[in-house]
Description:
By secondary structure, the protein is mainly alpha-helical. The protein has four helices and no strands.
Amino acid sequence: MGLAILAYLLLAVSGVWLSVSRLQWPSGANRLSQANWVVRPSWLRWTHIGLGSSLVVLVLLLLAIGIVGTIGHYGSLGHSPHLAAGIDATLLTAASAWSAFCISPLRPWARPLHWLTGLLLLVGFVRVSLTGWDVVQKYLP
């Protein structure tokens, strides 16, 4: 879970950086003549995409580990609110990835949806972390 939270935090930083650089750069402006604008490094977009892809993989892996571990330990699912929190976080991660894939000039609704799902994912991660603490306490001697 720690790697997923780290990926999320790095995504937040790179996403804000991408957004600020996009909003501050007027279309058609000469990059060399405007030194006071936030410059977007060429690697930033691909780093953001890579981190987002990593987050999707990590969240799916965590969901799989949780389901297999719970079934292995209890024989069934649904013993705590952690399952619902984990599924919610997984769905929010998928919605964020899907909305990111949709971002283009032809779909102006996708970028705000991507931001909204990203912010809701913060709430989801907090919920998963809090409910997960109870689950971890059950496994400890």
